[in-house]
């Protein structure tokens, strides 16, 4: 069932820990800090098991809706490989089963430095978006790249449809905290899902869904980066405490007041220098 207001959507998943839900609320507020009444030509959809926590801070926001999920559904979406990031793929598939149009998916730990509307014409044109290019795998620039290099060098993958893949060692790894695609690209998601299942079953690293997205997106076309507008602070989990404090202190303010205050809370401002330089290596410890 498609929303008649707009064909542009921003999608979040936020379930389980209240810290993660608060991250998503904070991210939505950063969008509103740049888009209050000016260019809200989009709808926001949140897949969550706790919509009431969102409503407590975003009540009255007409562009937001919730798709309630439960533990049984999440278990199914994690699949036989029991992989948390597989859920992302299934949520996007579920979205396209019920909507057409242009989708900007964002992880909860994202901060918008400008309005998102600039992305939708690109997505409508058929561009594929991800967050940032983290480098070629064959650069072997760090330990995890070296491990993935060896894994890809020694493996060939056969999808259920019989398609055989040998992923080039020069494949670029892109951060999957942001994904942009329209309904015409929805069939790619099944390939991403199948490759993720196969790779994770052989080598259970937390970047396998990201590698699958990176491979299939870039074999389709050159990927467009979004880091000029969206900051993804995946390696700065300490920021969650600041978010929790901010939301608690401002719970009685209206949405516009909260959104205005967010402008002074760019996570990079509070992130220690060593954290800014950690980059991809942080994922060695399962942090995404």
Short characterization:
42% of the residues lie in helices and 17% in strands.
What does this structure look like?
By secondary structure, this protein is of the alpha/beta class. It has one domain (8-285): Spore Coat Polysaccharide Biosynthesis Protein SpsA, Chain A, CATH 3.90.550.10. Helices cover 42% and strands 17% of the residues. The strands form 4 sheets. A 7-stranded mixed sheet has the order 3-2-1-4-11-6-12, sandwiched between helices. A two-stranded antiparallel sheet has the order 5-13. It has a two-stranded antiparallel sheet with strand order 7-10. α2 links the parallel β2 (43-48) and β3 (64-68). 39% of the residues are buried. Mean pLDDT is 92; it is low at 274-288.
| CATH 2nd-level architecture | Alpha-Beta Complex
Instruction: Report the uncertain regions.
Output: 274-288
**Average pLDDT figure:** 92
Helix share bin: 40-55%
End-to-end separation:
32 Å
Largest sheet, in brief, is:
7 strands, mixed
The CATH superfamily turns out to be Spore Coat Polysaccharide Biosynthesis Protein SpsA, Chain A
What is the 3D shape? globular
List keywords for this structure.
about 290 residues, alpha/beta, Spore Coat Polysaccharide Biosynthesis Protein SpsA, Chain A, two-stranded antiparallel ribbon, 12 helices, about 40% helix, disordered C terminus
